[in-house]
Each structure stands twice: as C-alpha cells, then as structure tokens.
C-alpha cells in the first residue's frame, strides 16, 4: 500500500502558468508533495528539478514529475494545460482546441484522483470548467474554475491606486464570464465597509487626495490589462499563480471561505447549467454553495448576458 504523507498537489501543464504555480506552492506550506505532468515530459522533468533545487531553505518537500499514474491519491489537482492566448486573440477563440485537450485529460486524471479537489485554470476557463464538470464524472462540488478571481485582483489593484488606499481595504468583485462579458457589480463594492461612492464623498470632504473614478475606464482596465501584458511580455502568469495560491489556501484551511470563482450555476440570478463567477462558499470539502448577494436589475441583466454568450458557444461543442 502506498504511504500517504501530508498533502499532495498535482499540476497538469508545466508551461509558464503551471510552473509558476508549482514554484509558488513549493515556497509555502500547503503541500508536502507536488507533481508536474505535461505532454512534454522533458519540460515537466526540468521544471520539477529546477523547483526542487530551490527548496533547500524550507522544510522538506517532494517535487516530482511523471505521467497520470503519478497523480494517484492527489488531494488537489490544478489543470493549466491548453494553447496559450495569442496577442489580439479573445479567450473564446481558444475554445475548440482547449476543449479537446480537457476532454483528453479528464478521464485519465479522474481515474487516478477521483477524490481530489480540482482547480481549472485553462482558458476559456468558464467553458472548460463546464466541460470538465460534464465529462469527467467528478462530482461538481469538487470542481472550481478560477473564473474572475484574477479579474477582481486586477480590480482591487486599480481601485487601490485610484483611491490611495491599501488593497486589503478594497472589497470588490467581478461577476460573470472571465472575459469580454464580465462586469463589476458596483452596488456591492465596499471600501472597508463603506460603499465606494460614499467613501469618495467622505474623503473629498476631508480634503484628502483622491482620484475620481470612471467606472467604464475601470472595467476596461480589468478586461484588457491581461491582453496588454500578453502583448508586452508574451504571457500572464504571476497574477494567475497568486490567484490559484489564494484558492489553494482556502481549500486547505480549517474553515470555509467566500470568494468569486466559476462553478456550475443552478438558477442563481436566473442563470442555470453554465459555469460563471459569483460569490461562492468553498473550503476543504470543495464547493459548499453560493451567496446570491442582491444586485441591481441592470447587474442581473449583465449576468444573464454572460450566460447567453457562453451557452451559444457551448451549444456548438461536441459534449
């Protein structure tokens, strides 16, 4: 019988995103074993060796690579495989190729790690999370797409800069698709418990420095900054790696947490049978449910618009 020691995390895909996630995990205490799997076995082996040699200053951790059998008994599986988005290419244009990749991965990994919690990172993440949910046989409670967690990280970053306040004081989310139909539910944005409009008014009343907020400009930044990064350096990986680390932390904690991630919808906001991001309770037992925070009618319409756009794509897939 295989000896089980600590927590095992497998990462499928050893490209820039997968290897950055693996390195980030290796420097924290979430895992005692990390396995890298990639169709390019030499790349996975090289990344594992490189990362292992960077762990000599921490408590012992096993870093390895292998085929799908090496993922046996994984507690968490992170899927990053797929063709990278090219400059000017939308996430939805990646769909057909990356759906094929996910459909190939799903039965192989589900066979050896049926009890793992799954984090889907590959784009277009909402569609691939839906596809994995439908074809893998893994219970939906064990499947989480990163969804808009990176988007609201970008939102917190730009709002903190505009408002001259620490990011930890900014409580804001991005709902819907991780892509062109995402939206900011401004009615839910709080700066340390105060609505953003009220906060700006209060700070201006104190004659403290603060920038005006152009909400359309902010949404454009959230939606387009990833493309800007890809144009300038070829890929985005630090932001998504930090986002995945945040999810892993929640999944390995003693209690549940609330975040914005992509999971299967069951009628929330009138949206059903599609994976989109809204406030979701997740923890060591996976997805526990959603928090249908009240939104304006306009915001609900935007959520349903995301649903329609994604379902149109899904309808053209061979599932």
Explain this structure.
This protein has 319 residues and is of the alpha/beta class. It has 9 helices and 12 strands. The protein has helices spanning 16-26, 41-52, 95-112, 125-135, 149-163, 196-205, 215-233, 238-251, 297-314; strands at residues 8-12, 33-37, 62-65, 76-79, 117-120, 143-145, 170-171, 190-191, 194-195, 257-266, 272-283, 286-290. The strands form 3 sheets. It has a 6-stranded parallel β-sheet, with helices on both faces. A 3-stranded antiparallel β-sheet has the order 7-8-9. Helix 3 (95-112) crosses helix 4 and helix 5 crosses helix 7. It is globular, with a radius of gyration of 20 Å. The two termini are 37 Å apart.
What is the gist of this entry?
With 319 residues, the protein is of the alpha/beta class. 40% of the residues lie in helices and 18% in strands. The protein has nine helices and twelve strands.
Shape: globular
Instruction: Report the β-strand fraction as a percent range.
Output: 15-25%
* Number of distinct helices: 9
SSE order in H/E notation? EHEHEEHEHEHEEEHHHEEEH
Query: Biggest β-sheet: count, sense, barrel?
Result: 6 strands, parallel
Number of strands: 12
Mean pLDDT: 93
Low-confidence stretches: none
- Counting helices, strands and paired strands, the structural category is alpha/beta
End-to-end gap: 37 Å
Overall helicity: 40-55%
Largest sheet: spatial strand order: 3-2-1-4-5-6
Radius of gyration over all CA atoms, rounded:
20 Å
């Amino acid at each position: 019988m295989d000896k089980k020691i600590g927590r095992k995390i497998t990462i499928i895909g050893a490209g820039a995103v997968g290897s950055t996630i693996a390195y980030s995990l290796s420097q924290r205490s979430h895992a005692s074993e990390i396995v890298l799997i990639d169709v390019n076995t030499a790349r996975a082996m090289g990344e594992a060796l490189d990362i292992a040699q960077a762990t000599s200053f921490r408590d012992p951790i096993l870093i390895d690579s292998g085929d799908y059998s090496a993922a046996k008994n994984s507690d968490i599986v992170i899927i990053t495989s797929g063709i990278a988005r090219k400059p000017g290419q939308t996430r939805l244009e990646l769909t057909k190729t990356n759906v094929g990749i996910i459909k190939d991965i799903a039965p192989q990994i589900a066979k050896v790690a049926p009890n793992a919690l799954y984090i889907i990172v590959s784009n277009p993440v909402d569609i691939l999370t839906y596809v994995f949910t439908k074809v893998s046989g893994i219970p939906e409670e064990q499947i989480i797409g990163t969804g808009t967690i990176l988007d609201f990280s970008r939102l917190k970053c730009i709002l903190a800069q505009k408002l001259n306040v620490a990011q930890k004081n900014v409580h804001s989310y991005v709902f819907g698709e991780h892509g062109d139909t995402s939206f900011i539910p401004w009615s839910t944005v709080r700066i340390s418990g105060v609505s953003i409009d009220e906060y700006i008014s209060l700070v201006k009343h104190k004659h403290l420095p603060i920038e005006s907020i152009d909400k359309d400009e902010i949404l454009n930044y959230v939606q387009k900054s990833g493309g800007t990064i890809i144009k300038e350096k070829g890929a985005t990986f630090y932001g998504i790696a930090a986002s995945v680390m945040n999810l892993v932390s929640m999944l390995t904690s003693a209690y549940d947490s609330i975040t914005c991630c992509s999971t299967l919808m069951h009628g929330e906001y009138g949206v059903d049978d599609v994976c989109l991001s809204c406030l979701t309770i997740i923890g060591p037992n996976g997805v526990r449910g959603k928090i249908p925070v009240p939104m304006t009618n306009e915001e609900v319409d935007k959520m349903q618009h995301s649903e329609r756009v994604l379902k149109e794509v899904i309808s053209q897939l061979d599932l």
